[in-house]
Amino acid sequence: MTTMCPQNIARLPLSWLCFVCLVRCAFGAEPADPESLRAYVEKNQRRQAYGVYVKNRKFGWATDELKLGRHAGRDAAVAIFEMHASFTAGGETSRSDATSATYYDLDGPGEILFAEERTIEDGHETHITVERESTGM
């Protein structure tokens, strides 16, 4: 039997985010050609909510959203993932909130224009941003 210590549980939101991104890449429907990315997003806009459970106990919840939007004056496909979790271990309650947003260019092959991730774990905040420049990311 595996015991989840607070250090490992604190990594769950990031692990969950990586898992969702891998699933999205592996099983996501690919547009037939680059010109159809806008049509794909228009057709598949959604917002879904999930319960997150560990050993049949609710650990938290998450939402996954795909929509059309804009970034820096350009049309973009926007993928947003949000997760909130709380658990008690050793009599101490720990809370984690994570949000990520990725903006994909609708012109061309759908390159990432901008991405950000904000994580708050027990009051400690981490904020990461990535933005495309003329030379790359």
Q: What brief labels describe this structure?
A:
137 residues; alpha+beta; 6-stranded antiparallel sheet; 6 strands
Description:
It is a single chain. This protein is of the alpha+beta class and 137 residues long. Helices cover 21% and strands 53% of the residues. It has helices spanning 6-10, 12-27, 37-44; strands at residues 46-54, 57-71, 74-89, 92-105, 112-121, 124-131. A 6-stranded antiparallel β-sheet has the order 1-2-3-4-5-6. Strand 5 (112-121) and strand 6 (124-131) form a beta hairpin. The relative contact order is 0.16. Residues 1-8 have low confidence and may be disordered.
* Order of strands, widest sheet: 1-2-3-4-5-6
Note the run of SSEs as H and E: HHHEEEEEE
General shape: elongated
Tell me about the largest β-sheet. Answer: 6 strands, antiparallel
Low-pLDDT stretches are 1-8
Q: How much helicity do the residues have? A: 10-25%
List how many beta strands DSSP finds: 6
Quote the distance from N terminus to C terminus: 43 Å
Structural class by helix and strand composition: alpha+beta
Radius of gyration: 17 Å
Strand content: over 45%
* Helical stretch tally: 3
Q: How would you classify the quaternary structure?
A: single chain
Average pLDDT number = 81
Short description:
The protein is of the alpha+beta class and 137 residues long.
